[in-house]
Amino acid sequence: MATAAVANEQTWWSGGKSPYNVSYGKLMMWFFLMSDAFTFGAFLISLWTTRFSLSSWPDPNKVFSSAPFIESGAPLVFVSLMTFILIMSSVTMVLAVNAGHHMDKNGAAKWLFLTIIGGLCFLGCQAWEWNHLFHEGAWWGRNPFPNRDGTVASTAFTNYFFTVTGFHGFHVFSGVVINCVILTNILKGTYDRRGHYEMVEKVGLYWHFVDLVWVFVFTCYYLL
Amino acid sequence: MSEVNTHAHDVPHEHEEGMTTKKIWRVFWWMLLITVFEVFWGMRVSHHFAAGYQWVNALVFLSMTLVKAALIVGEFMHLNYEVKNLIRTILVPLTLFIWFIVAFLADGDSWLNLRNRYAPHDREKAPTEVAKPAEAEPLK
Q1: Which of B32, B38, B47 comes nearest A223 by C-beta?
Q2: A98 and B61: CB-CB below 8 Å?
Q3: How far is CA B74 from the centre of its chain?
Q4: Per-residue model confidence as pLDDT tens digits over A33-53
């Protein structure tokens, strides 16, 4: 057998460096997100199991048909806006990470600040939507919306809606808080002294994951 | 195969060459385009399918969702540009979802059938007409 200087493939596991070529913190963030993916997956699969066990389900185009200043008849408009806000904040986050790679303190601070604004806008939209649905009589255990076929619907509809979007909204909220902490550190020059902006990448991973979950919630709750 | 392979694809990229500002915006426009398409389909197209063809909607929406998920994870979360070891470590465990989805949806479906058969007072109207409870064959 040839000695040490062999194909790169093997040297990954020969010790002395991370076989994943990332830092410990980033790897752990990936593992955390994987476990979180299973948590959200369990929620959504549970929702679909229940939907499969019922012969009908409320029509999202009827339930989610309002927006601020529009009483009804505007299906998907408001939730599209929310989706757009979240995608946009994901983009500003990548731009913040990108600026961090170039050790561009002002750039990273600017883009991260815009990401925080995006997160707050999303939370505001969600608060509006929850409030609106609550005033229409929807809450955990209460479902005023009929099924597509006109029969009385199960409260599973509202229970899952508030649980899943609530859990997602809580993730957005924690993301905003963490982003604020990182922004403070950027402004204080912590990462300049450290010599790298990897913390921005780590919170970036978390933030994109929140966007990823929303993509699935959007499909499961508002489209299908 | 004994030569030193200096061009193995597991070699780490110099420094994040994968993501330029231009590329970031290109991914953004794709995401936006897909979302607009989904919303258009949801508002204008999805009602026109007859009861038996709802799976077409599901197929369209789920494929669009998976494309968006791949863009987020691959480009924004940068997984496409990590070493293979990391990519596999993250993606292989996710295949558990295949079992997870199949098993639980089958369970939900069986639940619907059992209720229709054995709980007539609580009878759900199934999309396809089921046999009347009295005539139904008992389940094995």
Answers
A1: B38
A2: no
A3: 15
A4: 999 999 999 999 999 999 999
Least CB-CB distance to A87: which of B19, B35, B82? Answer: B35
The complex's ipTM works out to: 0.86
Among B103, B97, B19, smallest CA distance to A52 is for B103
Closest residue to B112, CB basis, from A7, A8, A53: A53
Confidence band of B17 (pLDDT split at 50, 70, 90): low
> What confidence score (pLDDT) does residue B120 get?
63
Which residue did the predictor score with more confidence, B70 or B15?
A: B70
Q: Which residue in chain A is spatially nearest to B87 when comparing CA positions?
A: A20
Q: Which residue from A187, A220, A218, A199 is spatially nearest to A80, judged by alpha carbons?
A: A218
Judged against a pLDDT cut of 50, whether residue B9 lies above it is answered with no
- Predicted pLDDT of residue B45: 86
What is each CA distance from A84 to A185, A214, B34, in whole angstroms?
28, 11, 11
Residue A55's identity, in one-letter code, is S
Helix and strand totals (H; E) in chain A: 8, 0
Kindly tell me if the per-residue pLDDT of B26 is higher than 80: yes
Contact between chains at B125 and A93 (C-beta distance less than 8 A) = no
Q: What is the H or E stretch that residue A198 is in?
A: helix A198-217
CA distance B86 to B90: 6
Give the whole-angstrom CA distance, residue A75 versus residue A81. Answer: 12
Chain A positions in Cβ-Cβ contact with residue B73 (cut-off 8 Å): 208, 212
Q: Which residue has the tokens 């209720």?
A: B115
CB contacts of A62 in chain B (<8 Å) are none
Using CB atoms, pick whichever of B12, B28, B97 lies closest to residue A41. B97
Give per-residue pLDDT as tens, B95-131.
Answer: 999 999 999 999 999 999 988 888 766 555 544 444 5
- Across all residues in chain A, what is the average pLDDT? 91
Contacts of B62 in chain A (CB under 8 A): 219
CA distance A62 to B47: 12
For residue A137, give how far its alpha carbon lies from the nearest alpha carbon of chain B (Å): 24
Nearest-CA distance A212 → chain B (Å):
6
